[in-house]
Amino acid sequence: MRTISPLECDVRHEVYLAATLDPFSVGRLTGLPDLAGARCLELGAGGSAVPVWLADRVGPMGEVVAAGGDPRRVAAHPRIRTLAHDARVDPVPTGPFRLIRARLLLMGLPNREVLLRRLADALPAGGTLVVEDWYLWLDDAILAAPSARDARLFARYRRLLIEEILPEHGVDPAWAARLHAAMRAAGLTTVDTTIHAPVWTAGDPGALLVTVDLARFRSSFLDAGLTPGELDRLHQLVADPDSGLVLRGHLLFSTMGHKP
């Protein structure tokens, strides 16, 4: 398994996420009222095509503010304004915004519930907040594997990732299950949650996200007892379309609430 830089990890992560999640995220937004003339806020938008999709719909009187991440990885568009922003410490960009969207952001922040309330406050009456985060749990992740040994290895990788490594890096694997109630507590109404349950086969963008985790957290996996050979085997299992591995992808909880 070739060593890749942190920057390459970030770029690959964004590319695989966009391919895996953008179609679902766009479908979730298509039921919203007409966005012509709206100001929209996209938090952590790097690599995603959703900001451009929104910019095409807000029209010449609207604006999409893409905040956070590397602005160079946000697609250029005359109605997209990029903004350097660290959601851990920076205030919410100046609103109001008729639509605010954050995907796979809050689950990795220590101030997630405080930020959720601040995002709700940045909406005008009738505005919409959409938060999408993964719910990570261990059961039934492997639908097919080339051998029982490979299945056990992948299960061990997932357990280490979800129970030890991600929490050590500030990620709450179960946050998404509390999101619906948190939106209601923030004063939003007509809150609804849709759960996206994909299946990933080896070589799919979703499965290739595992290769990013293996590179990004390599030293943590080694410290936890996985060997270099086992990490190489995991990489092969998820990257080779002929490996025979089939996974239940992470559940994406998409929760939408409206400002009364």
Radius of gyration based on Cα positions = 19 Å
Query: Outline, from the CA principal axes?
Result: elongated
Biggest β-sheet: strands ordered side by side in the sheet: 3-2-1-4-5-10-7
Low-confidence stretches: none
SSE run: HEHEEEHEEHHEEHHHEE
Calculate the terminal CA-CA distance, rounded to whole Å.
52 Å
Number of helices: 8
Give the class from helix and strand content and strand pairing. alpha/beta
Number of E strands:
10
Main beta-sheet annotation: 7 strands, mixed
What is the topological layout?
Layout: H1 6-29, E1 39-43, H2 50-58, E2 63-67, E3 80-83, E4 99-103, H3 112-121, E5 128-135, E6 142-144, H4 148-168, H5 176-185, E7 189-196, E8 199-201, H6 205-216, H7 218-223, H8 228-239, E9 246-248, E10 251-258
Parallel strand pairs: 1-2, 1-4, 2-3, 4-5
Antiparallel strand pairs: 5-10, 6-9, 7-10, 8-9
Helix pairs in contact: 1-6, 4-8, 6-8
Tell me what you see in this structure:
By secondary structure, this protein is α/β, with parallel strands linked by helices. Helices cover 40% and strands 20% of the residues. It has 8 helices and 10 strands. It has helices spanning 6-29, 50-58, 112-121, 148-168, 176-185, 205-216, 218-223, 228-239; strands at residues 39-43, 63-67, 80-83, 99-103, 128-135, 142-144, 189-196, 199-201, 246-248, 251-258. The strands form 2 sheets. A 7-stranded mixed β-sheet has the order 3-2-1-4-5-10-7, sandwiched between helices. It has a 3-stranded antiparallel β-sheet with strand order 6-9-8, with helices on one face.
